[in-house]
């Protein structure tokens, strides 16, 4: 009996350990605000439903915002901070300046949450919930978001420039970057499936359609129509050529057909270690949905270091 009890305690500790993370020993729980702000999830869901109905692309934008926040010093809403005299923030870092958007949507949600629950809910938790709802509203899975994050009181443009993978990354580079965050190659491939929604600027995929050899000729010709070799950097194209506003598995089918928009996308299906997972996901939507939700949970558990100054911001753009 005693041995059984010890084993149970050890198993419980193993389950809970990943949820203890970051500054001030924060404990993440899906029920974190159940008593202090019971209307939180309804507020976020309603606001995201309005935003996505007005512009389906906004769902992809909020998902990207969450990813770009978590990969830089953890999920601490540092990406939302405007520059100050004391630090240069992340908004204008190379990977963010022309591609991350949706700050106004988060500000709108924050204002509604503050009206319901003053100085209670972090901006970081709002972004995590908004990202989950964005995926689900566009046809993707849902999951229980672990909550209890706090907001950083500073930001780092240099960290954003050095921590985020680029559209020209190799498979080895992607695996290393995600691995440095505790995310496996399988997590990375599942999370890359987020590119089933959203649009991208010509400047980010020009080299792919003009210089890569593992690209479908008709697909390259289609993209070249609006992305010339010079000029037109800001012209947008759907990342998923088939269903750009619906969260499904056609992204992986595109890779199998050499129709990945980014060089980094096609690296997942180019005779390498992730070819098998691409085929699994394209044939098994339920496996992809489950893996994506699990990987989002793992990414969402990335926390800032214990010595990072944090707070619950009243305005997501600035410290209190």
From TrEMBL:
Any single GO CC term annotated in Swiss-Prot or TrEMBL for this entry: plant-type cell wall
Cofactor note: Binds 2 calcium ions per subunit. Binds 1 heme b (iron(II)-protoporphyrin IX) group per subunit.
Disulfide bridge partners, by residue number: 37-117, 70-75, 123-316, 202-227
Predominant place of localization: secreted
Keywords for the protein's UniProt record, in alphabetical order: Calcium, Disulfide bond, Glycoprotein, Heme, Hydrogen peroxide, Iron, Metal-binding, Oxidoreductase, Peroxidase, Pyrrolidone carboxylic acid, Secreted, Signal
Database matches in Gene3D superfamilies: 1.10.520.10, Peroxidase, domain 2
Chain residues that bind Ca(2+) 1: 69, 72, 74, 76, 78, 90
One example of a Gene Ontology biological process annotation: hydrogen peroxide catabolic process
UniProt xrefs under CDD domains: secretory_peroxidase
Family label: Belongs to the peroxidase family. Ascorbate peroxidase subfamily.
Function: Removal of H(2)O(2), oxidation of toxic reductants, biosynthesis and degradation of lignin, suberization, auxin catabolism, response to environmental stresses such as wounding, pathogen attack and oxidative stress.
PANTHER family listed in its UniProt record: PEROXIDASE, PEROXIDASE 72-RELATED
The protein, known as: Peroxidase
Species assigned in the record: Triticum aestivum (Wheat)
Taxonomic path: Eukaryota, Viridiplantae, Streptophyta, Embryophyta, Tracheophyta
UniProt gene name: LOC123167675
